Amino acid sequence: MPEQKETGMGKFSNLEKSLKIGELTSRNRFCVQPMECCDAEEDGNVSARALKRYARYCDGGAGAVVIESVTLQYASRSTRRQLLLNVHDPVNRRGWEDFFRTLKILHPGTVLIMQLNHAGEYSSDEWSERVCVKPKEGFGGRQIDAEYVDGVIRDYIEAADFLYRIGCDGVDLKFCHGYLGSQILRPYNDRKWKYGGSWENRSRFAFDMCAEIRRRIPDHRFLVGAKISVVEGIWQGQGNRGNETDVTESVALCRGLEERGADFIIESLGAARERWDLMAPNHGCPEHVWLHVAAAQAIRNALKPETAVVCGGLSVLGRDYGKITDFCIGDGMFDMAAIGRQVLADPDFPAKLLSGRAAEINYCRCCDACGELLIRQKPTWCIYSRL
User: Fold this and answer.
1) pLDDT reading at 203 higher than 60
2) Is 197 left (phi over 0), alpha (psi -120 to 50) or beta?
3) Which residues lie closer than 8 Å to 363 by C-beta, 6 or more apart?
4) pLDDT mean over 351-377
5) By C-alpha distance, which of 112, 102, 30 is closest to 68?
6) Contacts of 246 (CB under 8 A, 6+ apart)
7) Would you say 239 and 280 are in contact if contact means Cβ atoms under 8 Å apart?
8) Measuring CA to CA, which residue among 65, 62, 38 is closest to residue 50?
9) How many other C-beta atoms lie within 10 A of the C-beta of residue 365?
10) What is the rounded CA–CA span in Å between residue 96 and residue 82?
């Protein structure tokens, strides 16, 4: 496992432990998931509400916080009020500079990572342009070429370089949940082009991006990592051959990213518009949480000890979250436990759990009302505990 340091011997002694990731240290094993909440300004710039929301996540005591699925392409985005990073826009740049400056002043001990994303065929054609790797029933859009993808990679590299210079602690490259990264990686992308067909071609997008970011920023005090759908659970999806599960390529993806300088992998499953049940297990399919644990363990077993592995899909554990994740971390199944919907339900979840105040926690009901708000393009929050 990555280097560990005891910070206490409470009820959840493994969750309490610090964790070295790259050259940074997370004070505990909680990682807030990147979750879109539709609360940017109309032009995509950072809003006061978004800053307040992330300040609350940091207040809650998690060692690491990943800032939601931030688009680099205002022309192709998945939600009307998706947060935008445009390094060529002085106003947008200043907004992010102020955002990180504020959070670092208030919470200097929290590891702050930004997830970068391109929606691809999940872009809405109502307020932006939908683009695709290969037309797919129910989605479609303008088919992109290698020159377009080359430009996307350059955008990610420029964004990472900017974030490094303004004090962000790292980037999470989104290769999951059916967005552009998934669309390029999945076997369904059988076009004969630079980024399709063979595994060598389909993995080029992820591998070249990671390698070039790390070449540009060799300093491991700036973390580089990725969120991966180990299995999408759709025909010819990531981790699927036809409809059968085959994680060979997903494991190869994680190993290849590690070889190119990645410090962490966030495990996930499913696709946002096709297999929400895998991505975010609820009480109708609680058994899917064990698929997340198994997927995280498969990645943990495949990587070097110093590469951190974060397990997702855990909110449905409810009152058993602490007991189960603490055991899994202690048993070496994964290194950090993600909190997604649960942190919407109660931003103070980590602090309450670790300080013996579990009785005060507002546990996520996994009703997926937050997901429904996102679908309806409304500011997203827990209907039982508004921030």
Assistant:
1) yes
2) left
3) 318, 319, 342, 345, 346
4) 94
5) 112
6) 239, 240
7) no
8) 38
9) 18
10) 14
Domains, the chain, in order of start with CATH, read 4-375 (3.20.20.70)
Which one, of 291, 278, 349, 296, lies nearest residue 318 by Cα?
349
The token duo for 269 is 């499953």
Contact call for residues 196 and 147 (beta carbons, < 8 A):
no
Spatial distance between the Cα atoms of 74 and 157, rounded to a whole number of angstroms: 17
* Interior angle at CA 318, CA 313 and CA 321, nearest 5: 70
Alpha carbon separation from 47 to 6, 179, 379 (Å, rounded): 38, 24, 12
What count of other Cβ atoms lies within 10 Å of the Cβ of residue 262? 25
For residue range 82-119, list pLDDT tens digits in order.
999 999 999 999 999 999 999 999 999 999 999 999 99
192: how many CB neighbours lie within 10 A of its CB? 8
Tell me, letter by letter, the H, E, C secondary structure of the chain.
CCCEECCCCCCCHHHHCEEEECCEEECCCEEECCCCCCCCCCCCCCCHHHHHHHHHHHHCCCCEEEEEEEECCCCCCCCCCCCECCCCCHHHHHHHHHHHHHHHHHCCCCEEEEEEECCHHHCCCCCCCCEECCCCCCCCCEECCHHHHHHHHHHHHHHHHHHHHHCCCEEEEEECECCHHHHHHCCCCCCCCCCCCCHHHHCHHHHHHHHHHHHHCCCCCCEEEEEEECCCCCCCCCCEECCEECCHHHHHHHHHHHHCCCCEEEEECCECCCCHHHHCCCCCCCCHHHHHHHHHHHHHHHCCCCCEEEECCCHHHHHHHHHHHHHHHHCCCCCEEEECHHHHHCCCHHHHHHCCCHHHCCCCCCCCHHHHHHHCCCCCCCCCCCC
Cβ-based neighbour number of residue 355 at 10 Å: 13
The string of pLDDT tens digits covering residues 124-159 is 888 899 999 999 999 989 999 999 999 999 999 999
Worst-scoring range by mean pLDDT, 38-47, 99-108, 235-244, 373-382? 373-382
Would you say how long the chain is, in residues? 387
Max CA pair span of the chain: 57
pLDDT given for residue 386 in this prediction = 56
Confirm if 345 and 385 have CB atoms less than 8 A apart.
Answer: yes
Residue 36 has pLDDT above 70, yes or no: yes
